[in-house]
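Please describe our next protein:
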Amino acid sequence: MTKIYRLLLLGISFILLVSLGYFIRQDFSFLIDDFWFTSGLLLLILLSLIDQPHFSKDTNVFVNAVTAAISLLLVKSENRDFLFWTFLSFIIYLTVSSYILMWLRQNPLNQERKGIQFFSRLNRQLGRPEAIFSAFFLWGGIRQFGITSNEFNILLWFWIIFMILNIPTLAKTIEGIFIKMKETNNQEAIGQIFGVQSKNTFLVKLSEDRTQTTRIFDFVEFKYSIDNKIKKGLILDVYLLNQEQWVKVLTTQEIERIFSNKVLLTSHTPDFVYKITEIPETDYLERLIGLITENSTIEKIKFIYNSKASITEGQLLELTVRNERVLYQVVEGMTRIELLENKNQTGLIIVEAIQLGTWNNETLRFEQFGWVPSINTPVYLATNIDDVPLEQSEYIIGNIPGTNYPVILNKEVAITHHTAILGVTGSGKSVFTRNLIRQVVNETTKVIVIDLTGEYKAKIEDIQPIISEDNANKAFESIELIAAEERKFPNQRDYDLIKAQEEVIKTEFYNSIKIFLEGEPNEAIFELPDISNNSGIIEYTKWFFWVLFKTAKTKQSFGKRVCVVLEEAHTIVPELNSMGVSDFASKATVNSIAQIALQGRKYNIGFFVIAQRTANVSKTVLTQCNSIIVFQEFDKTSSDFLSNYLGWEFIKVLPTLKFRQAIAVGKAFKSNVPMIFEVPNLDT
């Protein structure tokens, strides 16, 4: 029963009851003196139609009982018969029991104890206005006019008609006839607006007699009675409530522009909705993704996915906030059940997206936007941008999935401020790194690959060892001689021999490094000599890094920028906690490399740290990496470490990243927020 119907019934009932009273009494004294009129008008009509049209709560029952008790005071003492005292006893019971129930009730009724449920439901039936005041109304008429009088028969017929018209199913039928009459001259109307969720979203009850089929993503037109404007809209959802079909209609300026802001229909009944049958060619339905929902924040939005278009993790989206085009990236999706009226439910997909910001075409970066979108703001797939110009030091390592928005890396900053490239085997990081090496090498930048696996030598054509075989053998012979001396007791060692052999090592490494830095090849690989002495290998590696850093400090690397690639970094710079207590040689090597990581940027030398897991890599080295590129990761240790760079919203994405997808963040990138991006399909 709608509000309009109840108000109409109230007005008609009031006029009819007053008219009947005047007809019976031939004056208006009944307005004050007669108990039947007080019960009929002030209680039966007002309480059943206005205060409690649907049901009565414990508090309503208490108020009804108190009001009924007061109305009984109008009965004169000579008319207080057996029925009067019966009514009074009944009213006292309702008053006391409903008052006690108000004290006892702490939970929803279906969660209360059985006794409380029983008496509460009993009182709600007995204490309804229709029950209490119908009895008062009829008893008052009988007491005053007699049960066989014409006056009582007139009041009885009034009561019968009123109660029939108050039946919800009959009221619904009458309303349907009324609406159908309004639609007589508007057969194309599919429904009527009955609610507004926000300034751009309307709830429409569909007409049962509509001749046109109605589907999600149909376009409609209507005249809204509040602002008297004609609007275009799009049906986004269909609900079934109380065996009636309802739809949600979205209105936006973008929808108006589809139809060139023209009025399509010649006449409109206010708040009636009409289906548009001729739709211009548009990609709007392929771009619309959903509507903003509750609990969105400045940094992260939540929206209801409702679209023909499919989206995936990492998808770039856009929406308008305060006339600014703000971009977000999808990081999570979840299902949710939404409760409607009368235990009806509907299933939803809720999507979460992190703000990247507004795109600045001049600086080619995302800039953070400082406000949250309104509820029901439309969310769209991001549109592409024009090709961007790059500076000489910049390189596009990939694009945000599904778009041409570039992820731009500053090659110089990536080297001098160190970059970590992390990910499990098979995620695409090695191919990505080899391609990145090709991009950073030039006349002023040299790359030294520390690869103990031999993978790079097989994949990169013509790459040569930085240490020649002859120099490597001489250096290792000196390392062996030093090791032999250090195995002696301190008082038996030949320190002059040790010092001389150290000079040989420095000279052999320095000469090889100098030739590489001053020569034509821009890439070289650091290989280990073909030996089985593990401690000798560690010393060999330590001395190489010591000489490399010394050359950078004293000779400024002969005017070159040096990029050292640590492939399988856990084998070269392992975490100190994972080493044995007596593994002093390995710790010395890690310290040599850590010194470069800490001070290298001052001398134009930097690292690309490549690793599968962060757990076994020196944190001293990793924490000096100002830029991070993360491919798929699973282990918790890596997640805990990376959360300092990415935040937990992106950490949750890591296990589900696709092949060749990664997250980039740090000083070397144009934007200062993490971004999911897709690496181009590379050959090697």
Observations:
- Residues 495-518 form the longest helix (24 residues).
- The mean pLDDT is 83.
- Residues 186-275 form a domain with the Thrombin, subunit H fold (CATH 2.40.10.230).
- The chain has 22 helices and 24 strands.
